[in-house]
Amino acid sequence: MASVVQWIQGTRPRTLPNSIAPVVVGAAAAHHIDEFKPLHTALALVVSVAFQIGVNYANDYSDGIRGTDDNRVGPFRLTGSGAAEPAKVRLAAFIALGIGAVAGLALVAVSGFWWLLALGAVCIAGAWFYTGGKRPYGYAGLGEIAVFLFFGPAAVLGTLYVQTGEITGIGIGSSIAMGAISAAVLVANNLRDIPTDAVSGKRTLAVVLGDKDTRRLYLALVAVPFLIALGMTVRVPYALLGFLAAPVLLPAVRRVASGRGGRDLIPVLQFTGIAMLAWAVLVSAGLALD
HAMAP family attached here (predicted)? Predict the structure, then answer.
């Protein structure tokens, strides 16, 4: 039986900033127009984190039963390692997605925007079919696009909209920033797994592009939030605070740019995730100061 620590590892803690940072900056965008609602933000955070954990467990289950994780270089996996029965990992994914769905229903109820139930259904389907089902889109090089959309526009603008009933320019810019750096986390993960994914038939974008171009893509994506912060200064000068996240990202950029691979790329996910959260918090502070 898998231990409690192993189940926690199965949530992939290094990736959780992907779900926290968009809600932080979305709430800050709502606060910027004096429409911040704590309850709405809290519910949005539960939805985002629960869905993130759900997709991580679902990915663990689906990749594990396909054999994709049999010879992986990356962090611990419950199914692939044999530490947990596949059915239990699948159940954990369903429970996490169910918690997110209940919180989402409550959020829709308090906000009154019932059409957002459709967006929630799309998010749940996206979480499962990333690596699940007969034709998972994560095996067809579409994972980065999905991550950009779900952790960028969907999470940021969704958090903003349920509080304000509108979409702002600051919100759109922030959603692009969050989507880009969230996709960079997946790019780094898939860069590390190119050798094993290619053998197992998992045709990720990294496998399609190859090592060199995947590194270029990562570097381009992590630059986007800083370009967005610079653009924001036209309306919010304090958005320059976002640049204070650059030193946090630097170790990851060095590892990717220097050509390091295998286990040496594992910390890149953590550094990128922390930099994403730092950017969100710093830009949010800038919006509050404006």
Answer: MenA_1
